[in-house]
Amino acid sequence: MLLRNTTRGTLIAERAEAACSVAARTRGLMLRRFEGFDGLVLEPCSSIHMCFMLMPLDVIFFDKRRAITKMAPALAPWRLFCGSWRAAGVLELPVGAIARSQSQPGDQLEFVEPGPPRPSVTR
Question: What is the model's pTM?
């Protein structure tokens, strides 16, 4: 899915995956790297840990309206807890994604699911 910051008009991730089941959210990015995707959406979720992470992450917490509530740039592996009491979900992103998207608390996020391919028109 495509993740956008509509407040700033910027792209956060082009090929994000969703972790919606309890098992997928529990595993998250443990012992994984970004390969073939550039973001992970954990929803519902209000806190994460960084145990068994292979890399630092940019982390964005968002509320049920998908407004940013908190951000943690370059969160280091093995940090035991990071959360936001108002969060309904979390974006785990490669380091630098927050800076590139110019995201700030209060900004509005948009998640765009890929649609079916459009047929080509020949004339």
Answer: 0.90
